[in-house]
Design goal:
The protein is mainly alpha-helical and 163 residues long. It is 60% helix and 0% strand. α1 crosses α3 and α1 runs parallel beside α4.
């Protein structure tokens, strides 16, 4: 029998699984899922509801349990919303389908945006160049973030519900 604390961690993971299938979304999808009213923004109340809000939304019959059918329905609903967003962003010819060229363009746009954000974070003096000192500082920062410089990383996991 699964204990409630374990279930409280597993349910948000199960509900978010379809979103994590798209590596291009990174952590944004978990935040987008908190947008309970679908207005494209997250209120303080929606963020604080976090997993509890996800649970309540998935428990469509209100029995305090999420069945397989409810999990599948919640996952399908999020997958459909994600596909609609992808089509809205990448379907440049408006035909309701994505060609290989449109997918390639979307991936190139995302890759370029990620690289620009990374460059901007590393370019501490904002001179448009990464000096040896800036690169060394970035390496030191990454080592520290992965387990205090021992190279093994922090194995505790991550996520907003872990506090």
């Amino acid at each position: 029998m699964i204990k409630f604390p374990t279930l409280a961690l597993l349910v948000p993971l199960a509900l978010a699984a379809p979103a994590w299938a798209d590596p291009g979304l990174g952590g944004r999808m978990g935040l987008l899922q908190m947008d309970r009213d679908g207005d494209g923004a997250i209120t303080r109340d929606e963020m604080q509801a976090g997993p509890a809000g996800m649970f309540a939304a998935a428990d469509t019959d209100g029995d305090g349990r999420i069945s397989r059918a409810e999990l599948l329905a919640a996952a399908a609903q999020r997958a459909e919303a994600g596909i609609d967003r992808m089509l809205a962003q990448a379907d440049s010819d408006g035909d309701g389908a994505l060609s290989k060229a449109e997918i390639d363009a979307m991936q190139d746009t995302r890759r370029t945006a990620r690289m620009n954000r990374l460059f901007d974070r590393l370019d501490a003096d904002a001179d448009g160049r990464l000096s040896a000192e800036e690169l060394e500082a970035a390496q030191d920062s990454m080592r520290e973030g992965r387990g205090h410089g021992d190279g093994r990383g922090d194995r505790r996991g991550h996520g907003f519900w872990r506090g």
